[in-house]
Write a structure and sequence with these properties.
The chain is built from 1 helix and 10 strands. By secondary structure, the chain is mainly beta.
């Protein structure tokens, strides 16, 4: 049985060694018909485990270029942490609508990293 699409994320705070809950995340898709503008697809907030689902498995997923935007400054402010990046933007391509797209964010006050998860 093949995966049924979907887009999700998981934010881990490497400095605190914990999931990063309460981060606002928005999902946008680049629209060539609209002059390459980014159109909002969905929004969510990471839960206590640092997870958010932007497009549920089984929902239609258009092929194209997507961007996950993470609002980081409120999260760092709550924890009294000095930071360098007030937000993070991760751009990726959906080339197969039926594949799951899990895009984790590994977060630290002065940097971040990502990868295609499973």
């Amino acid at each position: 049985m093949s995966a049924a699409g979907g887009i999700s994320t998981h934010v881990l705070d490497l400095a605190r060694g914990k999931p990063a809950g309460g981060i606002a995340v928005r999902l946008e898709r680049r629209d060539a018909k609209a002059g390459e503008l980014w159109l909002e697809v969905a929004g969510a907030q990471t839960d206590a485990d640092g997870r958010a689902v932007l497009v549920a498995s089984g929902e239609p997923l258009a092929l194209g270029t997507y961007r996950l935007g993470f609002e980081l400054s409120p999260y760092f402010a709550v924890h009294g942490t000095a930071y360098f990046f007030p937000e993070a933007a991760l751009v990726f391509e959906v080339r197969a609508a039926n594949e799951r797209h899990h895009v984790p964010l590994l977060l630290a006050p002065h940097g971040y990293s990502t990868y295609r998860g499973s």
